[in-house]
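Lab notebook, bench 4. Still working through the backlog of constructs that have no structural model yet. Next entry is a single chain of 293 residues. Request: give me the structure tokens for it.
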Amino acid sequence: MQRKQLRKLFQEKGIIVAPGAHNGVSAKVIEKIGFKAIYATGYGASANVLGKPDIGLMSMSEMVTHMHNMANATSLPIIADADTGYGNAINVMRTVQEYEQAGVAALQLEDQVMPKKCGHMMGRELISLKEMVGKIEAAVSARRDNDLMIIARTDARTKYGIEEAIRRGKAYEKAGADIIFIESPESKDEMKLINQSIKAPTLANMVENGRTPLLPSAELEKLGYKLVIFPVTSVLAEANILFRVFKELFETGTTDKLVSDSLLFNFEEFNNFLGAKDMRNLEKKYLPQEVVE
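Model written out:
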């Protein structure tokens, strides 16, 4: 159902704004606010699960479990980061099938050499265009549900320039990718050129303080983008607020001011946001009365 939801969004007018979620809570908040899709960020997964940077440390099985949990936390379509596909074209085929079973609506594959790095870090190396084309073709052939969307990302811009990045984007489009993601363009002119050159829907990656201009979604739509993701926003916000609240606790020995300043979610309200009240009603419906009481 979520895959058809995402396909429908791509058929409708307007840009799709998919904030990044790094765990189930952030996914539920994004849905509650009213967004229509979620980007399940690999950067945020590595930070959230491992407490490590996005340098290819998460394994495929760890990411599949993480994506499964994310997909179960929300009814929105999940656009999932699948890094390099965790190996060659044959590995990619298994990755696609495992991600599909985990419940994602789209998955992103990139043309970096393993172990990969965040797309706004330096030092990224690429596999050959020919190898990446084979990986995309393998991904397309491996999906069992044709509504599962394949996103092909190239990191060529930073080291090889925008023309090479566009050349790769066109080749990945021809190989069957549903969405083209040219990572880290460095100006609005480059972003415009991308959309003049690529016929398939394109993805804009808005990383705060990253290499690409941080533009409003409406402006990105005018430039020709169909999908915009904000992959690190949630995890950056969480880390920032945690530093603030734990500093207050460390210095004062109490969280009283955090409560009075409304920096903390009300405990009962948060439980109900997570579904505690709904679970309680299910207990009353399905469990023996003596257990519920």
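Notes after review: The chain is about 55% helix and 10% strand. The CA atoms of residues 272 and 279 lie 9 Å apart. Flag for follow-up if needed.
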